[in-house]
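Appendix B. Raw example, untouched.
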Amino acid sequence: MNPVSIRLLNQQLIAPQFSHPAQVVSHMGAVQAQEYRMMRWAVEMRTRKPSARAFKRAFDSGQIVRLHLMRGTWQLVTAEDYWPLIDLCSPKAIAVTKGWMSSNQITIPDQELAHIRDILAMTAADKGSVTKEDFVHALARKGLQMDDHRLSYHIRMAELSGTLCSGDLLPMKATYALSTDKVGPRTQVDRDEALMRLTRKYFQSRQPATLEDFVWWSGLNVGECRKGIALLGSAIHLEKWHGRDFYLTDDCRTRGFRQGGYLLIPPYDEYLIGYKSRDIVLPEEHRHHAYNNSGIFKPIIAHNGIICGNWTPFKEDFQASFFNEGLSIEAVETTWQAYKNYLSK
């Protein structure tokens, strides 16, 4: 087994199978969306013809939405998966969020949560797509003021309740909309069905991966993750590699890898954040180049799937640094041009 090439193929980072951004997000189950500008490249680099405009169309139309969900962090999900994932993942995410609130010495009574959530919902219903500043003004009109930190928790809890999700895509600023307006009315999916669907999507897009990887990524408990794997039955199997147990689906992609390729990977990308253990593609001695102990992930460069450097996305000229010998900026210029082309399309 070559886990690096298999991950590249099944993560759609080489020989991508999909033309539309919503297909990519559906395939992945959820895509980390911590960095508002770079989440677009995280999706589009996995399509056959990356296009910033194609992502905006899918986002504005509600085919893809952004919200706080797994592990209490930002995710992109499809409209089809939105309600099943809310029901499956939000209870644990709410508990995580309340833990963060407690550590920050913030207490929000249930009555306040409900009252503020109603105001946020009415504001989004009136305007269709609103910014955090719009919420501040709406609260002020009712004689309510709160610091930005407290308001952020209110918005996050409104997302986890299924009330709010992302609105229209702006260049730099997040917006919010009513979930029922953006993705449609709430639909009910059996919990086991939702768990099986998420488990299948995780392993089909990130294989080979371990049970521990799935537990980390999903934010679910070990028992639920074991159950999700069991629900897949014969569609998934174990293989050992270097003494570790990895799961692969029976339709795993294994053909299409070519040596010599470079990837410009955005910060918080699923290529790293989708796993608890990242040593397969990132040697431990270089870990600090890719992310730190505070959970800050950086833009990275991969050569043949192995993380080898950093790059700067928001400069006119290509700027990169390498921590592997024998690599140069000139070798990555073609990949940089593909990124620039994506921005213009």
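End of appendix B.
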